[in-house]
Design brief:
This protein is 89% helix and 0% strand. With 147 residues, the protein is an all-alpha fold. It folds into two domains: 1-84; 85-147.
Length: 147
């Protein structure tokens, strides 16, 4: 992949983040104007707005700075080459598979546990996502030393 194509794709991602953030901000403003501040929707829209909008702006500024700086473009090319290195692809794939397999066993275990104990689903998804992320990064560390 050449640098121009890579930069255009990154700019598209930044614009998508900005659009999601602006839509969330618009919906948040409409809800606040209508006085509908009850429920979880206000928190979810606030999270969307204050997560995606600054991230999109920062991402776009970073990309535009990179585009104007030839040295940064050379670093970007080097990062692209390292990102697509066979060893890195192998490590990411193997670690992702390990994290997914662990999550499946965790889901099965929690399901069996929920038969006898009342487990709130409110905590189930954050626990699953958190453990999957932790296992993924631990697995990358182990596999990087192993291979």
């Amino acid at each position: 992949m050449n640098v121009e194509k890579y930069i255009k794709r990154q700019i598209m991602f930044a614009i998508v983040f900005l659009v999601i953030g602006v839509i969330g901000l618009g919906a948040l403003v409409v809800l606040l104007i209508l006085g509908n501040t009850d429920g979880n929707i206000l928190g979810a829209l606030g999270g969307l707005t204050f997560g995606f909008l600054p991230m999109g702006i920062g991402f776009l500024v970073s990309i535009l700075k990179t585009k104007r700086n030839p040295e940064a473009i050379k670093r970007t090319i080097k990062q692209m080459e390292l990102k697509n290195d066979e060893r890195n692809l192998f490590l990411r794939t193997k670690s992702g598979n390990a994290a997914f397999e662990f999550s499946l066993w965790l889901i099965m275990g929690l399901w069996f546990l929920s038969i006898w104990v009342n487990i709130s689903s409110r905590w189930l998804f954050p626990i699953l996502l958190g453990t999957m992320s932790i296992i993924y990064f631990i697995s990358i560390g182990i596999n990087a030393r192993k291979y």
